Amino acid sequence: MLFRTTDLQLLKEAADKRSKNSDVSDAVSGWFEGRTSIDVLDLHAGTGATLRALAPLLAPDQAWTLYARDAAEEALARDHLTRWAPAARATEDGLFIERQGQKIAVRFKLHDVVAAGGKLAEPPPSLVVIDDDLMRYPAAVIRMLVAVLADRRSVMHARLIYDGRLKLMPHHAADGAFTAALHRRFMRDSGHGEAMGPQAANELSEQLRLSEYSVIEGPSHMHLRAAEAPLIRAVQKELAEAQRIVAKGHDVMIDAWLARPRVTLEISQTDLVGVPT
Length: 277
Hints:
By secondary structure, this protein is α/β, with parallel strands linked by helices. The chain has nine helices and ten strands.
């Protein structure tokens, strides 16, 4: 949610590979070790990045369902999965990918978990995954989602969830105020309840534990340097846009803050997996 354009999301994907928490990803692959096949539900199709990151860790035969909020999101994921696997074949409702010894059937489905109050379009499979789209989810939606997963004892894996800490360098005295403004925007009510924003990973972890899951979690912090200046600049712009909403009439101050050169950015993130006990 920090990077809203497709170009930025794709640029971020390289940084994501460095950021993932190996203990959590090893726990996911270890739980399903020895399986020859697996069904996976991705609650946010996006660009297909979660599938690209996780598929190599899983069984030789995989069946993925990707939820898209609209046809444009489905088309975006389809396009970038095809770029990742140029030999992918179109099927009636998705793609069939053969890549590096794996066979991956991909099915797209239009469904917004938030709009549905946490309910899924069908019973969950053995593994359910989500990226930082979890930040859109209100607490009630997370509770309902976990109840649905717990009923089937599905494993839940959330990856790269922003947890509320940004560090731009060189530091500016107003950075904290701008970050607070961004958090207020993340936690706004979009019509389905107030989003959890940077508290989403904590809420998901707590609800999983209350549902008798064992939760493994760890940091997946993103460290951006000069080579990733477009990503740093994008976050600066998001912060400035959020501050303009809460500090109306202070455009000169905000513009001066935005003009300050920054050379590094650290984004604090969390990976977690919940497994039934």
